[in-house]
Specification:
The complex is a heterodimer of chains A (492) and B (596).
Chain A lengths: L1 H11 L7 H4 L5 H13 L3 E13 L1 H9 L2 H11 L4 E2 L3 H5 L2 H12 L2 E4 L2 E4 L8 H12 L5 H9 L3 E13 L10 E2 L4 H6 L6 E2 L18 H15 L3 E2 L6 E3 H4 L20 E3 L9 H12 L14 H5 L1 E3 L4 H11 L6 E10 L11 E12 L3 H13 L6 E8 L2 E11 L4 E11 L1 H7 L5 E9 L1 H7 L15 H6 L11
Parallel strand pairs in A: 6-7, 8-12
Antiparallel strand pairs in A: 1-5, 2-4, 3-4, 9-11, 12-13, 13-17, 14-15, 15-16, 16-17
Chain B lengths: L2 E5 H8 L5 H11 L2 E5 L7 E2 L2 E2 L3 E5 L10 H11 L9 E2 L6 E5 L9 E7 L6 H16 L8 E7 L7 E6 L5 E2 L8 E2 H7 L19 E5 L5 E4 L3 E2 L12 E7 L2 H15 L8 E2 L2 E4 L7 E3 L5 E6 H8 L5 H9 L4 E4 L6 E6 L9 H12 L20 H15 L3 E2 L5 E2 L1 H4 L13 E3 L9 E2 L4 H10 L7 E12 L7 E13 L4 H14 L14 E6 L5 E12 L7 E10 L1 H6 L6 E8 L5
Helix pairs in contact in B: 7-9, 8-9, 10-13
The chains are: A alpha+beta (492), B alpha+beta (596).
Chain lengths: 492, 596
Amino acid sequence: MSDLQLSILKLLEDGPVNDLAKQYPDIEPTILQGALNSLMARSMITYKTIETDLWTLTDEAIEIVEQGSHEYRLLEEVTKRLDGLKIADVQKVLGQAGKLGQLRAFKNGWVKKEGDMLVSNVSDKPNDATADDLKTIKMTGSLPNAKELAELKKRKLISKTKQITFNVDKGPEFALEIKKLETDLTSDMIQSGEWKSKSFKQYNFDAEGAPTLAGALHPLLKVREEFRQIFFSMGFTEMRTNKFVESGFWNFDTLFVPQQHPARDLQDTFYIKDPAEADEPEDKTYWNNVHRVHEEGAYGSIGYRYPWSAKESLRLVLRTHTTAVSTHYLHELAKNPRPARFFSIDRVFRNEAVDATHLAEFHQIEGVIADYNLTLGDLIGFMDRFFKRMGVNKLRFKPAYNPYTEPSMEIFAWHDGLNKWIEIGNSGMFRPEMLEAMGLPPDLRVHGFGLSLERPTMIKYHLSNIRDLVGHKVSLDFIESNPAVRLDEKLV
Amino acid sequence: MPTVAVDKTDLYEALGREYTTEEFDELCFEFGLELDEDTSQSELPIVNGVQERAQLKIEIPANRYDMLCFEGIARALKIFLGKESLPNYRLTKPQNLQKIIVAPETVQIRQYISAAILRGVTFTQRRYDSFIALQDKLHSNLCRNRTLVSMGTHDLDTIDGPFTYEALKPENIQFVPLNQTRNLNGKELMEFYENDKHLGRFLHIIRDSPVYPVVYDKNRNVCSLPPIINSDRSKISINTKNILIEVTATDKTKVEIVVNQLVAMFSEYCAEPFTIEPVEIVSDHNNESRIVPDISSRKTTAKLDYINGCCGFKQTGEEVATLLSKMSLSASVSKEDSNVLDVTVPCTRPDILHQCDIMEDAGIAYGFNNLERTFPGKSATFGDPFILNKVSDIVRREVAMAGWTELLPLILCSHDENFKFMRREDDGCTVVKLANPKTLEYQVVRSSLLPGILKTIRENRKHSLPIKVFEVSDVTFKDEKLENKSYNERHWAAVFAGKTSGFEIVHGLLDRIMKMLRIEYISEKEVEKSGYYIKEFEDSTFFPGRAASVFYRLKSDPSKAVNIGSFGILHPEVLENFDIPGMVSSALELNIEYFV
């Protein structure tokens, strides 16, 4: 290999070399090119690849070059005989080629038919153009007349191959010797001082770097972390949400959700078969207060006025919202009422049909603000600030219904990319029926707001199927290659 | 939330102006409705050679039963826009008060009944359709698919009072059901409607009861068999003039709400609009004898400083009264106390339970988006993580930094995945089981993180090997001693899957994470020192001789060593069960709650 490279350098000593392949007829062009590339990488040469079409003769054509074309040979056979050639004898005299020769001789007007005989139709011997053309091709590899060339190709007398050759010139580092180039600087070279005399191979800056082995956190949990940081920075304490199973009491009744409410349907809520029934809560006063406010009304409310069932209240469910946890916290807060802010981001369960945007479980983000004399304007203003942290700058609020908040507001955000308002969360002031039953003073008002973790994540990162984000069908490549999360970053 | 389709032209005519879809959407938004669809925005279908009229499909808040039909929506919006005030519903004083006499046996099945009569009604096709549609909407929402309440409407000119409401053996009830020709008894009727798409789903409400509720007229003509079907005899049509509305229920409050909504919505079309003829219910056995319907308004009060304080605006009593009038509530400042508003809640607004509901209406009328956006900044609170989450995050980050990839599988799984596939036995006191899952995928709340991780590996079989994945999350166990009979436990699990077992790699990861948690590796004999040690153990999930238990000597009491989990080479049958061919795998699962 390096012999070839040295030989090429030697050839170049006197100046540029055109058609290098001609100089090395026995060496494959790919091998030549390898040598040239290697020299070029060292800037010792420059070269250009020249591709030309080369026509070669088929076996039939080689025969024609030697013996003349079939039609010419037929004419010769015809003129040889005074009376001409018997048509029936053409094959006998010329073999397989006779028939073709006859056809073309007629076409050229060289012979004519007299009875069952072929006789000459020309006085002088014509030029055998086919044979002449083929001779030219044999010598030069091509023919100036493209039409004739195509005709010969059609007659399967010639075939095309590609010829590759190179025009080579000296490069800036041209020399007759090849210096060994180092690919990398090593500690040995530094120790020995060799680096000072070594030449280094040019680095390919267009190639990608070597892939790094890396662990990865799950994309949705990276978004969860962003939300947690927003909550921490706004003075919220994280709630202990490690409790998936709740009684109907804590999940619904305490939240003033009547026992006939559709949310409590088998269609919407997962009930537990085993274990089946919860114990009554320790705080019997609270248990009775909740019972009373549903059945008869209390705290200025007329209540729902239906026979409240303890049994229904003790049915166990998979929590349908983390608001069940907020209820535990607010019930605790009632022992020592004071301003407080709580949040949680954890799994909730809904017995829903699974589709591209719904799973039977998802993460609920929940925030609770308790303070004296809070106003609705405070809640709206707070939501403004909260959502600004996640890059959402334009909010509006729609009156809505929710059994445990009044007023209730759906939060809509303006989405520049989609050019429309999209619903991103729910909020409201917890009802006095819920708070006063716990023993919280009436002037300690509590705001709550919630949104799913998945929905804003899917909108922000343009995911259309929730199963690509949550669950066992998620692709490991997706997790491994997902960029870091910055909610404040504008993506659309 | 229910969605109601209303005729677009009729509604805009009622509102006195045309709206663009955007304008109407805006109006809905401010009022708390949601415009789902304007059907005229796409080509309207042609039905029986006539192009369908344009409709607006409007989502109604679930507690606004007064807006479940065209009449209710049009009226509420007209009042909101100040184009109309609340109608004055009145009871007439008929010469012959119609009576329904209730038999005590009805207590066994559906004890409450209420009723009302609309006289001289003028229906058009669209009014009639709306009347039928409202009954459907009420049945499916407030009436909880007829279980709590159901209603029947009858052409009063085909039947004669006094009526009786009884509970009889199914065999003893004979009549021709609505739109049928055959006479059926109660039993036959159950069979007849067994496979009926519409009615079949209501049969269960009474089917197995020894007695069925039934309403008769004085000539023993059956009017209805609540909550299933009316009789064909008394059926109403577009030409019906005098309508008997009969509502039966198991819920005493809702029976009146339903009858009130029906008459409030449709008395508009009576010969004398907004008049309702009452009916006497004779029901002494359960103290429910009374004249119905009770359409009187409820008088209540709301504090002005409460409304101003909650909303965050400063309105005078008169201003708040004006706001409330837009929401169909009439209010005036009390003569005794200028801080008190006397509020009259019409019978159509049973959703008003507390002054907070009145406060909300004032807020809506003012416009939530017109409120000054303030910030609740009076009290300082401090951010603080849940300590178990903090420890979890340390583990998650350290494991990821060690080159492992975090997964997020589901918490619900099948019973087989949790037990059989893992070669584990269900001892009946471990796992929480669901009563009503829609698919076999969700039968139990997982008690191990491994099934979800193995399923994820199965779905990623084509990924380059080795696969190194982990999860830190909760599993749930049964515990009869607790109020909610169960508890969550925070676990960390990691699984290596590749061409070699990776046993030492998983072991090494354990050592690394323990080091990062400042938990020392100790020998079992060091009883006075907190730390962890491992011990070989046999477990059906793991390959024999290639599994270890992990023990932790508590910081608070090193003499106590708790088994916090295990790791090992997964049994080949486990991989086979999870359909993970061509790999060998090692797994680790620990309870990390002790590290708090």
